[in-house]
């Protein structure tokens, strides 16, 4: 279910945006642990993959490390400087569902 959600969200983006986000996810996954500018800690064991897209847009993929694997929990295009509480809550809820 989670994978389907993220796939649908990513498929709604144009090919260049998908490629950028995919490369950034891959860089974090295979370079783990990795820090800024590609990745940053959030809270409660959540991390974000940080992607800069064309048109001055910013994408974030929230993930957690579960049993040594990167699990993508939520993705969105940022509209404000701070990550919305609703986005963090959704990612936390999805992480709890995995346990």
Strand content: 25-35%
Strand order of the largest sheet: 1-2-3-4
Q: How does the overall form come out from the CA principal axes?
A: globular
Q: What average pLDDT do the residues reach?
A: 89
- Oligomeric state of shown chains: single chain
Helix content: 40-55%
Roughly how many Å apart are the termini? 15 Å
Q: In sequence order, what are the helices and strands, one letter per element?
A: HHEEEEH
Structural class: alpha+beta
Provide a count of the helices: 3
Main sheet specs: 4 strands, antiparallel
* Poorly predicted sequence stretches spanning 5 or more consecutive residues: none
Number of strands: 4
Polypeptide structure, described:
The protein has 99 residues and is α+β, with helices and mostly antiparallel strands. Helix content is 41%, strand content 30%. The chain has 3 helices and 4 strands. Strands 1-2-3-4 form a 4-stranded antiparallel β-sheet, with helices on both faces. β1 (39-41) and β2 form a beta hairpin. The radius of gyration is 13 Å and the shape is globular. The two termini are 15 Å apart.
Which features characterize this protein?
3 helices; single chain; four-stranded antiparallel β-sheet; 99 residues; alpha+beta
């Amino acid at each position: 279910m989670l994978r389907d959600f993220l796939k649908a969200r990513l498929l709604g983006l144009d090919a260049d945006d998908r490629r950028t986000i995919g490369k950034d996810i891959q860089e974090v996954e295979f370079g783990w642990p990795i820090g800024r500018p590609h990745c940053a800690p959030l809270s409660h064991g959540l991390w974000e993959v940080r992607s800069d897209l064309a048109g001055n847009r910013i994408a974030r993929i929230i993930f957690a490390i579960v049993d040594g694997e990167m699990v993508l929990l939520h993705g969105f295009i940022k509209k404000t400087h701070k990550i919305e509480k609703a986005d963090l809550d959704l990612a936390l809820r999805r992480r709890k569902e995995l346990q």
